[in-house]
Amino acid sequence: MTKSDLIDMLATNLNAPKAQVRRMVDALVDTVTATLVRGEKVQVSGLGTFEVRKRAAREGRNPQTGAKITIGARNAVGFKAAKPLKEAVK
Known about the structure:
Layout: H1 3-14, H2 18-37, E1 42-44, E2 48-55, E3 58-61, E4 68-71, E5 74-81, H3 83-89
Antiparallel strand pairs: 1-2, 2-5, 3-4
Helix pairs in contact: 1-2
């Protein structure tokens, strides 16, 4: 499902204009992004938790040459599904 598909489904389910739903989805994405940038978690009941996870530097290999390389430390977004979502997907 793409963002556009999501907007179409929400607009149909809510009987709301697509433009309004698009603004709401964009606001949700912007809010989640801003919250994660501040280092805070975002918990959505029934869906799950988004959080920033620190990834340590590690050694890897160049797939073309096999030479050792260092992969730098970075932040990554993690998601842990809530129990109702896990059960629904089972």
